Amino acid sequence: MYGLMVVERKDSVTENKQPEAFVCSQCGELHPIAMKYSVKVPQAAIDLSKDELDERLVISPDQCVIDGRDFYLRGRLLVPVAGVEEPFVWGVWAEVGPTDFIRTNERWSVEGRELEPAFPGWLNTRLPLFGDTINLEVDVKTQVVGWRPQLTVRDESHPLAVEQRHGITLDRVREIAEQIAHLNP
After folding, report:
1. Residue 90, in any domain of the structure
2. Looking at the 3D structure of the chain, how many domains does it have?
3. Cβ(45)–Cβ(2) below 8 Å
4. Mean pLDDT on 65-79
5. Which of 107, 133, 145, 179 shows the greatest Cβ crowding within 10 Å of its Cβ?
6. Which domain holds residue 158?
C-alpha cells in the first residue's frame, strides 16, 4: 500500500557540494545519499486493510484522521550534520490530541502560528534504525506558514534524541542511507 521510506532528493547533500552517492559496504552497489527521508502516512494508516481505507481514513499530505477520533500531523525531526548547512530530516507523523489537532488545523494558514506553544505528541512512524519508535513522546512545535511542525523527542536518552541534540556526521548520513537501502519491505 505505502512505502516505508521515501528518499527526497531535493534536500540531498549535493546542494552542499558533498558526494551524492557512495558504494555500499553490504552489496557493493551505488546508493544515493540524501538528507531527507520521509514517510507519507502514519503507521496507524498503514495498519488498515485496503477495505477499511475509504470508511475509516481521511488524509491529506500533512494531516490524518482515523475513525474521526485519532488525529495525526506530519512533521519534521531535524538533526544537525557537522560541516553541512542544512539539517538531516526525518519526515514523520505524530499522533496528537483532538484539541491540539483542531487548533493546529484552524491556524494552518494563519501568519504568526509559529508563536503557538509546543504541545505533546507521540511518534506514529516506525524508524527501524532506532528500535521501537511507535508512541515515542515528542514535542510538536508549529512553524511558519508553509513549513511542517518540528518534532523533538522528549526522552533525552533515546538514540534519536541524542542525534537531534548532538548532531551527526556525514559518515552517519551514509550509514543511514545504507541501512535504509537494505530495509526489508
Report:
1. yes
2. 1
3. yes
4. 98
5. 133
6. 38-166
* pLDDT tens per residue, range 117-150: 999 999 999 998 998 999 999 999 999 999 999 9
- Write out the three cell numbers for 95: 499522533
At 141, which amino acid appears? Answer: K
- pLDDT tier for residue 177 given thresholds of 50, 70 and 90: confident
Contact 153, 127 (CB under 8 A): no
Q: How far apart are the first and last CA of the chain?
A: 11
The amino acid sitting at 161 is: A
Compute φ and ψ for 184, nearest 5 degrees.
-75, 135
In a domain, 174, yes or no: no
Residue 10 in any domain: the answer is no
- DSSP per position, the chain: ---S-EE-GGG-GGGGT--SEEE-TTT--EEE--SEEE-SS-HHHHTS-HHHHHHHEEE-SSEEEETTTEEEEEEEEEE-BTT-SSPEEEEEEEEE-HHHHHHHHHTTT-TTGGGSPPEEEEE-S--GGGS--TT-EEEEE--STTSPPEEEES-TTSHHHHHHHH-B-HHHHHHHHHHHHT---
Evaluate whether residue 120 is within a structural domain.
yes
Cell of 5: 521510506
Whether residue 15 has pLDDT greater than 70: no
Q: What integer pLDDT is reported at residue 73 of this predicted model?
A: 98
